Amino acid sequence: MNDIVNKVQEKMGSLTDLMKGIWDDSLIEYLVHTPTTKDALMHLKYWAVNQANVLNFGRKLVSKVGLMGVKSILENNPWILYLLKSDTLVRRLAKGKTGRYHESICVLGEALHLGITELLEEMYFDPSRLVIIEDMLPPDLFQAMGLKVYNLESFGLFLPMLAPDSVLAYIDEAENAGVNPDSCSLPRATIGMVKKGHLPKGLAIVTSNLPCDSGMSAYSYYRRAFNLPIYHLDVPFNFYDERAEDFFVKDLKDMIAFLEQHTPGRMDWDKFREMCINRNRMLEVELELWDMLRVRPAPLAGEAIWLSHFWHYVVTPGKESSANYMKILADLAAANLEENTPATINENYRTLLWNAPFFQFIDIFNWAENNYGITILMDSLSYNHYEPIDVSTPESMLKGWGRVVMQGPMVRHNRGPAENYIDDLFRAYKQFDIDMVWVANHVGCKSSQSLNGMMREQCRAKGIPLLMLDYDLIDPRIVSHDSMLRQVEHFMDNVMKAKKLGQ
Amino acid sequence: MSKKYFGGCDVGSTTGKAVILDENGTVVADAIVPSEIDPEETSIVVLEKACANVPELKSYKDLAYLVGTGYGRNEVAFANENISEISCHAMGAYTCAPGVKTIVDIGGQDVKTIALGDDGSVLEFAMNDKCAAGTGRFYEAMSRIFRMDLNEFSDLSLKARSVIPVTAQCSVFAESEVVSLLAKRNPPEDIAAGIQKAVAKRCFTLLKRIGMQPDITLTGGCAKNTGLVQALSKIINMKVISLPVDPQIIGALGAAAYAKQRHSN
After folding, report:
1. What is the enclosing helix (H) or strand (E) of B223?
2. What is the mean pLDDT of chain B?
3. How many structural domains are present in chain A?
4. Is A58 a member of any domain?
5. What is the DSSP string of A210-231?
6. Interhelix angle for A185-195 vs A168-176, to 10°?
7. How confident is the model at residue A463 (pLDDT cuts 50, 70, 90)?
8. Domain assignment of residue A103, yes or no
9. Which of A383, A427, B6, B213 falls between 20 and 30 A from A355, CA-CA?
């Protein structure tokens, strides 16, 4: 009898936990706890727009591939179901925020939903034009050729934001097949996805010698696994000179010729010009936004800055919608600035995040903001030094676009002299009036380990408080979320001598 | 009571330590007791023991300011303030040896390395609190195999003519490995030296994570282990300096120094 009672209690306990989990993630719970009614209505408005967007995509997908086609896509690409959590992600990011800061996250949420559905359309609607590219290559040039394109590694980054355990099975798959477990988890997860056949094949692959050895070497496997023609872009090591730029332009021309040979894509220079103009517009708006971030306390912060940049520059660059979204963010920041309204009233510590952000524990930023008043104002992936692309000729556009690839933040930081990595940090530190630096110390990134050692010495010499936060880019089993929080707590307690808000 | 006294109480996992400072910052009393199950009880016992050495103090309640530290610090509800052991070890080492820039603190159940600024502030730290390897508990287990106390074990390791590597990182596996090595009639002193080297290597790994600068010192109970101090000096190729006070009470000393500072403010 006792056994039965215990089992019933156990089941009831599990059910209660499950119900609590569903409630905690639900829209209603979010709306109930939103600081103001205005915020709740704002959130509801964007939620409706996002749902309409998803439904519209579902309708288009069914009409394109039929119900059986949808079933087949879901069976062969089960990770797509994680994308349904995008809505929860927006609520996680927006929790506790209010006013225009809250709205900026809603805007970002809309951009994420739109970007995801557009990406899925690219991947599954027209396989006869599909090309696979490496994640350091922006997709706009390929889209200007009329090709459908997806970054092979993008899901390894994006899925853990939605659910930290979403790619673990793929990492294990790659390790069981003999991939070195000490290498970066991003190529491991991608190899696992490819090995399981969970990503569409396409017609060709374009990759480069970026950003690191493990990422680069994984392409020899992808080539064999997909059995596709591959083009390797050779980004020069010393890229700050005319000779390197000319060399890379020639390389890009050869790549275009390769794609025209192996795919139905043809270069449309007018379309490319339009995309470059959108890029230039986005850059102009972002620089305006950066200027506003220099004010203390900042009018916007956190994901509105770093995730927006990542999304619009890496996933959806060159699109008019991306430039528009960035403009909305800048307008929100400007309105806050005009009214002297800070993003958060508790901006106690302005922080710079160096190295790739904590994709599998994106909630840490909100936690830090709510617990200590730590605002992330700039990060190494966002801190670019792009120049506007000269759109006067195809040659000048290729040169400008090539510069974006060669001098992109992560590329610049992981190649070339250490000064690229370290000087950028000190420049950003000064520019945004930063109080402390967080280094996202991805334990699988061999490229940045030695750089971080050099950076530590220089930070100490300059008296800059530095937190080397150990984590793994996408595998939370290596350093647990709890351990990451404790690292921040210890740092705030011992180095910053800071108490939690309200203590 | 005409004079004011300031207390620091470090409630560790293995021992409780207390230090009492007078208004000049001089250590007037200290005490070390084995930890009880209840951290609050440990703190009361150790504080009372230290207070017994100061005639003007009838009880710890007469202290002008008391700071608690160590893993059980949050249970010391009667302390005026709780400060983390990382900050207290840094403050303690700085108080008695201002030239110290790097600390290796080997506690009962964790190992920490701490980088200090010129003013004794914590610049960075790294810790291993996930496993017992290289901690005081590890040494207890090892010396038990040799049927010695820690001092005898330390002395034994200093007699080694060569070093037999102990490769297991985990305390449990290391215990099995050491038992096997002894059973194979290897010289005990060489095995003991191998154990010291293995711990020193683990410390070195943690030291690399914070970037070591001289002067380097060891704190915590294991700092009394001369064999480890020598092994660490050899591994890092740098002199490990001795502190002028018992290294086991550095955390409590730092807590007492904070108590004096906080009271003045």
Report:
1. none
2. 88
3. 1
4. yes
5. -S-HHHHHHHHHHHHHHT--EE
6. 80
7. very high
8. yes
9. B213
**In angstroms, what CA-CA distances link B176 with A370, B109, B151?**
48, 20, 22
> Contact A302/A261 with Cβ under 8 angstroms?
no
CA distance B257 to B98: 13
CA A151 centroid distance within chain:
12
The runs of H, that is alpha helices, within A415-480 are: 419-431, 446-462
Chain A residues whose beta carbon lies within 8 Å of the beta carbon of residue B90: 494
Longest dimension (CA), chain A: 84
On whether the pTM is more than 0.80, the answer is yes
Between CA A44 and CA A174 the distance in angstroms is: 41
Give the Cβ contact number of residue A333 at 10 Å.
Answer: 27
What are the tokens at A431? Answer: 């520019």
Q: Give the list of residues 6+ apart from residue B67 with CB closer than 8 angstroms, or none.
A: B7, B8, B9, B79, B80, B81, B82, B83, B88, B255, B256, B258, B259, B262
A28 assigned to some structural domain: yes
Task: Please compute the mean of the pLDDT values over residues A421-440 and round it to a whole number.
Answer: 94
Cβ contact A467:A372 at 8 Å: no
3-state secondary structure of A150: strand
Is A339 buried (19+), middle (13-18) or exposed (0-12) by CB count in 10 A?
A: exposed
What does DSSP say about strands B81-82 and B102-106: parallel, antiparallel, or unpaired? Answer: unpaired
> Which residue is listed with tokens 């017992």?
B132
B207 conformational bin, left if phi > 0, alpha if psi -120 to 50, beta if neither:
alpha
Check pLDDT > 80 for residue B76.
no
Give the CA count within 13 Å in the CB-facing half-sphere of A69. Answer: 12
Whats the size of chain A, residue-wise? 503
**Is cis: bond before B39, omega within 30 of 0?**
no
Q: Judge: A495–B90 Cβ closer than 8 Å, yes or no.
A: no
From B125, B209, B211, residue closest to A490, measured CB to CB? B125
Q: Are A65 and A73 in contact (CB under 8 A)?
A: yes
- Reported as half-sphere exposure (CB side, CA atoms, 13 A), residue B110 has a value of 14
A349 vs A498: CA distance, rounded Å: 10
Cβ of A493 under 8 Å from any chain B Cβ?
Answer: yes
Q: Enumerate residues 273 to 292 of chain A having a beta carbon within 8 A of any beta carbon in chain B.
A: none
CA–centroid distance for A28 within its chain: 27
* B84: contact with A, CB 8 A cutoff: yes
pLDDT number for residue A321: 95
pLDDT in tens, A153-193: 999 999 999 999 999 999 999 999 999 888 899 999 999 99
What are the distances in angstroms from CA A237 to CA A242, A415, B168?
13, 7, 42
Task: Place A22 in a pLDDT band, splitting at 50, 70 and 90.
Answer: confident
What is the 8-class DSSP label of residue A418?
Answer: T
**Residue B172: which of B203, B132, B205 has the closest Cα?**
B132
Sheet holding A349-354, edge to edge: A374-379, A349-354, A436-442, A466-471
The share of chain A scoring above pLDDT 90, in percent, equals 76
Angstrom distance (rounded) from CA B25 to CA B228:
31
Q: How many angstroms away from the CA of B181 is the closest CA of chain A?
A: 31
Q: Model confidence over B119-149: pLDDT tens digits? A: 899 999 988 766 667 787 888 888 888 888 8
Which range of residues forms the domain containing residue A65?
A: 22-109
Mark yes or no for CB contact A494/B209 under 8 Å.
Answer: no
B87, B209, B211 ranked by CB distance to A494: nearest: B87
The first and second tokens of residue A357, run together, are 């952000």
A494 and B211: CB-CB below 8 Å?
no
How long a stretch of residues is chain B?
265
A81 is a domain residue? yes
Asked if this assembly's ipTM is beyond 0.90, the reply is no
